[in-house]
Amino acid sequence: MLFRNRFLLLLALAALLAFVSLSLQFFHLIPVSTAKNGASSKSRKRIMPDPVTEPPVTDPVYEALLYCNIPSVAERSMEGHAPHHFKLVSVHVFIRHGDRYPLYVIPKTKRPEIDCTLVANRKPYHPKLEAFVSHMSKGSGASFESPLNSLPLYPNHPLCEMGELTQTGVVQHLQNGQLLRDIYLKKHKLLPNDWSADQLYLETTGKSRTLQSGLALLYGFLPDFDWKKIYFRHQPSALFCSGSCYCPVRNQYLEKEQRRQYLLRLKNSQLEKTYGEMAKIVDVPTKQLRAANPIDSMLCHLCHNVSFPCTRNGCVDMEHFKVIKTHQIEDERERREKKLYLGYSLLGAHPILNQTIGRMQRATEGRKEELFALYSAHDVTLSPVLSALGLSEARFPRFAARLIFELWQDREKPNEHSVRILYNGVDVTFHTSFCQDHHKRSPKPMCPLENLVRFVKRDMFVALGGSSTNYYDACHREGF
């Protein structure tokens, strides 16, 4: 009898656990993923929308909150995942700066009151925040390429200046850096404990928010680093095109893309009505309000949970925000379909991708320089690279977005090297245009380096059409 009672009790307990598990899945508290074509979903997460965790229809507020990237619990990531017989050789990190104060203000309204000083006991919090401020205060004599040496190393204004990095932005990149440290240094020993200055390659645009974001990630990655080993190079172009920035055909693609954007906006009567309503609220011409790019300021209000501005004529509200944000989402969708932006992206991203594969090829030869490269950049840097790689379904770069190229060596076949591409911790390698077909033909868990090299050296130009076989000719071809 005692045995029977125990058996019934265990049976009831098992049924209860099964019910609880199904309930949690139903209410989306436990993510559920399915594998396509029988492949393991653990090894390659999808960048396509997940019907289990995302709204069934596009929700502009949901998309905006993803863009805010508000720091919370430590995220899971797929960086550094490889079969045991693969050795990590080098890592190349492209980041968008963290959360910033708006670049534009809504005319005749009060600026959102955001404090850009760094306070350890204020949310969002990071355990290294206070130490980061202390370490940055010791870096005034650091050697950076001009004009970076004139920029502040961390944000420090009681009322943020336009475009200034916020505490949220610093914490976002401290988290990124710590995550990469745990994976690349503690697990894979990418750099030795006595790493040298020439094993890092650091580059940033000339904005304080990109320099400070790069320093925050670097501090999370290499806490209390030796300032004498740190040298950030200055990149004048947001495309990081260095000495290859003159490209007339790229600019023609951009002009056509901007024309497409303009025509799409003209067709959106609800958008024009919304701009008209907001213009009346702030008492300026509609054209002036539109030129002030109100969505930039409104995103700051949303990300920092600050009420939208009001005047005696009324308030800018969430419905106005939803209309503008929805139009942005529709614009991104049409941009993918028309492919004008793809042409711009292939030419815009080529110089930085070419530089990256050059660094990878040197690493395959056994060179120990520049094993960890960090480019601290903007949305207009990452977006063309994502598009050029064929990652058309990837979301627009959020604050503190990270795009990572990993180079691996097969220990069993030392002459073979492979790459992995990760976007915000998700392995997107086999979504890229240069490795989709390889994934279909080969069971190997990574993409051969030669696929990426061939893509940058040849296939990027083939995708543009015409007969160009190099970057210069593609930039100067006639009859476009």
Describe the structure.
Strands 1, 2, 3, 6, 7, 8, 9 and 10 form an eight-stranded mixed beta sheet that branches. A two-stranded antiparallel sheet has the order 4-5. With 480 residues, the protein is an alpha/beta fold. It contains 15 helices and ten strands. It has two domains: 63-247 and 340-389 and 397-476, Phosphoglycerate mutase-like (Rossmann fold, 3-Layer(aba) Sandwich); 249-338, no CATH class. Helix 4 runs parallel beside helix 5 (208-221), helix 11 packs across helix 12 and helix 11 (340-364) packs antiparallel against helix 14. The protein is globular. InterPro entries: His_Pase_clade-2 (IPR000560), His_PPase_superfam (IPR029033), Histidine_acid_phosphatase (IPR050645). It catalyses: 3-O-[beta-D-GlcA-(1->3)-beta-D-Gal-(1->3)-beta-D-Gal-(1->4)-beta-D-2-O-P-Xyl]-L-seryl-[protein] + H2O = 3-O-(beta-D-GlcA-(1->3)-beta-D-Gal-(1->3)-beta-D-Gal-(1->4)-beta-D-Xyl)-L-seryl-[protein] + phosphate.
In short:
It holds the Pfam family His_Phos_2. This protein is an alpha/beta fold and 480 residues long.
CATH architecture of the largest domain: 3-Layer(aba) Sandwich
Order of helices and strands: HHEHHEHEHHHHEEHHEHEEEHEHH
**Ends distance:** 87 Å
Give the total of domains: 2
What does the average pLDDT come to? 89
Low-confidence stretches: 16-49
> How big is the Rg?
24 Å
State the helix count.
Answer: 15
Name the CATH homologous superfamily of the largest domain. Answer: Phosphoglycerate mutase-like
Class by alpha and beta content: alpha/beta
Q: What is the name of the CATH class of the largest domain?
A: Alpha Beta
Strand % is: 5-15%
CATH topology of the largest domain: Rossmann fold
Biggest sheet record? 8 strands, mixed
Based on CA inertia axes, which overall geometry fits?
Answer: globular
Tell me how many strands there are.
Answer: 10
